[in-house]
Amino acid sequence: MKKMVTMAALLLLGITLPGQDRLSFTVGAFPDSGISNELSEFLQMERKGQHRKVILDLFNSGCIVCFRMMPKIQELQEQYRSSVRFILVGEEDGVIRKVYEKFRQRFSLSFDVIYDSSFFRYYDIPFVPLYVWLDESGIVKAVTGPDEITADNIEAFVHDRLTFMPFKEAPVTFDDAELLLIGGNGGADTSFLFRSLLSLWNRTQPTIYPARLDYSVHGRFFQALNVSLADLYRYAYFGWARWTCRDSVYGKYYPVPFYLDDDSAAFADVRYNYSFKGLPGDSLQTLLRKALCNDLATYFGYEAMITTRNMPCWKLILLPGAGDQLKSRYKTRSMTGSFAGIDYRHVTVSSVIDLFYFIRQDEYPILNATGIDFPIDISIDAVMTDRESVRKELVKAGLDLVPGEHEIQVLLLKKVPGK
Description:
The structure is a single chain. The protein has helices at residues 37-48, 64-79, 96-107, 118-122, 151-158, 229-238, 286-300, 323-326, 349-359, 387-397, and strands at residues 3-6, 14-15, 53-59, 84-90, 112-115, 127-128, 130-134, 140-144, 172-175, 195-200, 221-227, 258-259, 272-277, 302-318, 334-338, 341-347, 366-368, 376-380, 399-415. By secondary structure, the chain is an alpha+beta fold. The strands form six sheets. A five-stranded mixed β-sheet has the order 5-4-3-7-8, with helices on both faces. The chain has a four-stranded mixed β-sheet with strand order 12-19-14-17.
């Protein structure tokens, strides 16, 4: 099996593969072992002379980032010349001196430069540029990449207030026959910027069924487990999978997507999981909805569109002259009941409709057409899953549940050829 060695943030960096017996720079210790005589003399002279802090800049001839960083480091050297000394340590390879000389002339660089090949063989240097931060006594205080070379960090270094963690990057294995980050392949499974995942649900997994598409209170992610394909499309295009009379989408969207190719039965009993890890700033869930729409189109191959149509529904109506009969005689709200009946006091009509949603026998929406704007009392003595029995009790109370039509927005799904 082909194996590769990869490291984070190596794009455009010079890569130096570590040997098995190479030493690492140890924070809190002297790096004297393996240092060339020339570099050792530089450090000793600094300790006896101006007694400045030192930053070793390790580079090689093949690292474009190394050379791009040099003008910036020159500015920092001039700004902190009395407190910090930069020393460049180049990996001798026969061409590096010529390359550096061109950059030195072009950018007026004035660094002390040491060229050494044994230094790079002795120490574990996973990539360049690599910066070794030494205090006035020559003790390693940090080992970093280029991102930490900033004026703020140099200022903190000068005043012994470095707060960033010492750099320690260990190589990881990557098998190009396996997926990146799965099972630690190429890095930790959390090392992604954003992620979307669609999978089949199985009975060993829990059910997580959010009412609406929104990020979790626990972080910038959304997860739904044990949901239908219709649920996923409702999340993607309506922003909700389920709703009640009190929600803003009530009466606006038809709850059932229409499959124009009549193949909805193929997905009727299949349950799915969806997980998305988003980015900071996506407060309106724009990226989340876009990702879910794209994922559904990619895997299931449907073209989705929203249109307005007259669709079948159930309407809860007030029977003539029944208003006074329904008006509540109580001051406080009370709701008791079971599948054998209910006794509601001082409730809104919406409370009754919400109950019907949980016991309904089809997917048709139930709309409030009563016009009632006052609290009501209602008792139903019937098997609540038997619609006809419930309707008879509703009529006794002054209400009725009748079939009708309603102009409403509908999600249409059409299979795209070849997908």
